[in-house]
Amino acid sequence: MIIEYDPQGVCSRHFSIDVQNGIIQDITIDGGCHGNLQGIASLIRGQKVEDVIQKLENIQCRSKGTSCPDQIAKALKQAL
Predict the structure, then answer these.
(1) Residue 42 in 3-state DSSP?
(2) How far apart are CA 15 and CA 7, in angstroms?
(3) How many Å is the maximal CA-CA distance in the chain?
(4) Using CB atoms within 10 A of its CB, is residue 61 exposed (0-12), middle (13-18) or buried (19+)?
(5) Do residues 56 and 48 make contact, with C-beta atoms less than 8 angstroms apart?
(6) Distances in Å between the alpha carbon of 1 and those of 25, 39, 78?
(7) Span 29-79, pLDDT tens digits
(8) Whole-angstrom Cα distance, residue 10 to residue 47?
């Protein structure tokens, strides 16, 4: 399943996440802090959706009330 998600309140503009059998196969992120997001993408590939949600949910960026990792967790909740 491919999850297409437009994050809210962060610098990144769009996530495309490939989830197969509850495992993240790939993620493409448009916009945002390229190096940091590429690092996050590399770390979550091959991981269980539930584990990634638990690790990334509620991470805050400055005073935004959310972050790119938090938005990834929100997008992944669609896969559940």
Answers:
(1) helix
(2) 7
(3) 35
(4) middle
(5) no
(6) 10, 22, 10
(7) 999 999 999 999 999 999 999 999 999 999 999 888 999 999 999 999 988
(8) 23
The pLDDT tens digits for 7-16 are 999 999 999 9
Return the CATH fold of 2-77.
Answer: Enolase-like; domain 1 (3.30.390)
| pTM as predicted | 0.94
Parse the chain into domains and list their residue ranges: 2-77
Tokens of 67: 């972050």
CA atoms within 13 A on the CB side of 71: 25
H or E segment to which residue 29 belongs: strand 23-31
CA-only gyration radius of the chain, Å: 11
**Contact by Cβ (8 Å): 68, 10:** yes
Instruction: Describe the crossing of helices 68-77 and 49-56 by its angle, rounded to 10 degrees.
Output: 140
